[in-house]
Amino acid sequence: MTINSTERPGRPLGVTLAIICSVIIFSFIPLVHVYFLLRIRHIMSFGPESVIGFNITGLSTANLLLEIGLAIAFLVIAIVTWRGRPAYMRHVFVGAVLLLGVIFTVVFVLPPLLQTPSLAETGLDSGQDAARQQAIDFLIATAIVSLYVVWYMNRGPARAFYRGYYLPDPDAEETK
């Protein structure tokens, strides 16, 4: 089977999966997280904490704005990467995935994992165990998606898609 060298390669399924999974991890989940935290903040504003029964710590506006900004910036990068032009967006996308993986881990995942408040401060709180498990799950998902993006975006089909053409087959040239 010979491939016409003037034919533009189509987007491989692996590139599609890499972009969709990373958009879910780095844009969709953070935006939904911010939405629910803002809804809870709004609901809590109608009554005293003792009536509602819980308190959300770490709900600083700066962290929420950082999360929104990073999610929207990554969404823009993913859209441009989806188009396939310019060719360097493959590298920008991989760099953004790795950078956001580190930022989300340090800023949003590690604090719930490292936080050990005393029982006198928080009382019996079943939400703390759920938040800890959610942070572990997000850390695992981030690692898996990041590794997949780095692996697939450096494979031949992805490179050909972003390059815009197939390289000549070295085996075909040797037989001539």
Give a brief rundown of this model.
The protein has eight helices and no strands.
What keywords describe this structure?
single chain, 176 residues, mainly alpha, 8 helices, elongated
Poorly predicted regions: none
Oligomer: single chain
Apparent shape: elongated
**Number of extended strands:** 0
The overall number of domains is 1
Instruction: Describe the sheet with the most strands.
Output: none
User: H/E series, N to C?
Assistant: HHHHHHHH
Distance between the termini: 15 Å
State the helicity in percent bands.
Answer: over 70%
User: Which radius of gyration do the C-alpha atoms yield?
Assistant: 22 Å
State the secondary-structure class.
Answer: mainly alpha
Task: Tell me, rounded to a whole number, the average pLDDT.
Answer: 84
Measured by DSSP, the beta-strand proportion falls in under 5%
In DSSP terms (H or I, runs of 4 or more residues), the helix count works out at: 8
Structural overview:
The structure is a single chain. The protein has 176 residues and is an all-alpha fold. The chain has one domain (13-116, 127-164). It has helices spanning 13-44, 49-52, 61-83, 89-114, 119-122, 126-153, 156-163, 170-175. Helix 1 runs antiparallel to helix 3 and helix 4 packs antiparallel against helix 6. The longest helix has 32 residues, at 13-44. The two termini are 15 Å apart.
Ordered list of secondary-structure elements with their pairings:
Layout: H1 13-44, H2 49-52, H3 61-83, H4 89-114, H5 119-122, H6 126-153, H7 156-163, H8 170-175
